[in-house]
Amino acid sequence: MSSDEQELPVFTTAADMRNWVRKQKKSGRKVALVPTMGYLHEGHLSLVKAAKERADIVVASIYVNPTQFAAHEDFDVYPRNPVRRSIGSSRGFEGQTLPALDDRAKLAAAGCHAVFEPESLYVSVPGAGEGSNVVGRETQHPDSHETYVTVERLQRPLCGGSRPHFFRGVCTVVTKLFHICEPDVAVFGRKDYQQWRVISRMVRDLDFAVEVVGMPICREPDGLAMSSRNARLSPEAREKALCISRGLAWAEAAVAEGRVSEPSEVSSHIRGLIEEAGGKVDYVELLDAGNLGPISDLASQPTLLAIAAHFPAKDRGTVRLIDNTVLGEAKKE
Ligand SMILES: Nc1ncnc2c1ncn2[C@@H]1O[C@H](COP(=O)(O)OP(=O)(O)OP(=O)(O)O)[C@@H](O)[C@H]1O
Ligand SMILES: CC(C)(CO)[C@@H](O)C(=O)[O-]
Ligand code: BAL
């Protein structure tokens, strides 16, 4: 275990996390939260960097949230820390099994100050396990979790079509994380653009004293948007999936150069690219980048071009990838 990791506090209970944050805030420190589902990549670490620029203390959460997954989705195979393994004489962890230290080591190296890594965030029947909070697998025990947060309109388009449960789960777990970690700032990525907009609307409507920051998409050198789910792609599918980022780049150039003027020209071209690459399109849509509402042309507003598509997984089933760009918006370097 590196010296950094030895100094990185890891909290597994809400009470301990909240008490630690309150001590920091009592000392006048500003606290930022970076919520994640682990299996960290440079995209996540870019959020930690942004958080450090905006607060004195950065907490990252690692929790694969069951309530944002449906029973037919990939909760069980979602990439997690490599198999937990026993480790030797690390301070305080003798003989215990731990998730691989990869995520924690990355966070420590990125200058994160604490990690919140709960086993579970939902009350469930003893022995029922986290999976019992996946939508469609809920136990009906009278003591089970039953309170949710919903952003009614912004949740409907795009991912709300094939994942109608998703944003209810996201808003509920982010609300819980806000109550536990009590951040002044929360940093999200615009790779999940609709999620960023939905959470921003939730914060506005429910008066959370939290500044929500949305950071640009980090990409692999070949353009693929970094995502934990990329690890599940077969090698061939990893190559084929480049059609998504290449389609976005084509659209940016075609719109900027006036080669296309109708939203339907853009969506049908990109849909064709994905299908030619063997992908299964969930959506290719162009919406108002501010309110996710419908548009009639590309010139009247910054336009979100959002894509979701499935590609073959190396193990079983498919991997659903999402990516996006905002057309008509100056690119920040
Ligand atoms: N490539 C990226 N660039 C910027 N932010 C990112 C990127 N990938 C993920 N994030 C952000 O990191 C936070 C945690 O996301 P998550 O843990 O689900 O990672 P992920 O890579 O999006 O995984 P998934 O495979 O589920 O998409 C979110 O705010 C998400 O938008
Ligand atoms: C925000 C989040 C951590 C909530 O589980 C998740 O949706 C994600 O990682 O984007
Ligand atoms: N960042 C993606 C979260 C999900 O698909 O559940």
TrEMBL record:
GO MF entries: ATP binding; pantoate-beta-alanine ligase activity
GO biological process: pantothenate biosynthetic process
Keywords of this entry: ATP-binding, Ligase, Nucleotide-binding, Pantothenate biosynthesis
GO cellular component: cytosol
Catalytic activity: (R)-pantoate + beta-alanine + ATP = (R)-pantothenate + AMP + diphosphate + H(+)
Pathway: Cofactor biosynthesis; (R)-pantothenate biosynthesis; (R)-pantothenate from (R)-pantoate and beta-alanine: step 1/1
Catalytic activity, EC: 6.3.2.1
Family the UniProt entry places it in: Belongs to the pantothenate synthetase family.
Name this protein carries in UniProt: Pantoate--beta-alanine ligase
Species whose genome carries this gene: Gonium pectorale (Green alga)
Lineage, top ranks: Eukaryota, Viridiplantae, Chlorophyta, core chlorophytes, Chlorophyceae
